[in-house]
Amino acid sequence: MAGRRRRPTTDRTIGGLSFSQRELRDLLVAWLALGLAFTFFLEREFRRIVFGQFGGLSGAEIASTFAVSLLTVGVGFLLHELAHKVVAVRFGQIAAFKADYRMLGFAVLGGLVGFLFAAPGAVVHRGRLTAKQHGLIAVAGPVTNLALAVVFLVPFFLTASMGIGGFLRELTEMGLQINLLLAGFNMLPFGPLDGRTVREWSTPVFLAVAVPSILLGVGALFVL
Questions:
Q1: Cβ proximity of 171 and 72 under 8 Å
Q2: What is this structure's pTM?
Q3: What's the whole-number average pLDDT of the chain?
Q4: If you ran DSSP here, which 8-state letter would residue 4 be given?
Q5: What sign results for the dihedral spanned by CA atoms 78, 76, 112, 57?
Q6: How many whole angstroms separate alpha carbon 168 and alpha carbon 157?
Q7: Are 122 and 81 a contacting pair, CB within 8 Å?
Q8: By the number of CB atoms within 10 A of the CB, which of 2, 12, 40, 224 ranks highest?
Q9: Are residues 146 and 93 in the same domain?
Q10: Higher pLDDT residue, 126 or 31?
């Protein structure tokens, strides 16, 4: 007796993780939307062009800012979320990133008017978890941002010491700043932020990650 035919799966496996077509689409849209939102936010002249007030900003300058935003803000946000997914999957969870299209729209509109608050979406997962497992899933995001900050730190100092400006300097400075801010902000112990989940699991772990993350985030905001 023949068995039932299985429906062909549309999932793709990347780096050992399974992604549905919808999840890949959500990741791409969130990445591009964040890049656009921060481009609007960072380039006042670009905002004037959008509103029909043509200024002296060149297409190359717009493209450069967009590229920097994609490689720093976009990557920082999305790797933060994917870190949650990686750890959740390790604990046997079914986990996927889901973009919040309304919040992404608000981010783009906010960038246009010069005020930006970005909440691109979140990794949702289901299955039974202990408090420790919840905490480890939560802390994976901020720790990933700290690791990315270290990646940007060396070229940041090299470009500064060698007097290199332009695209590379902007890329390393923004990459360092954004990832420190993301780590610090997400470790605040309030609302749906990662810090609250980590604190509910372990106060020592929370303090060990939150204190340096928040201090570095404040430093990145006012020093860099």
A1: yes
A2: 0.85
A3: 87
A4: P
A5: negative
A6: 12
A7: yes
A8: 40
A9: no
A10: 31
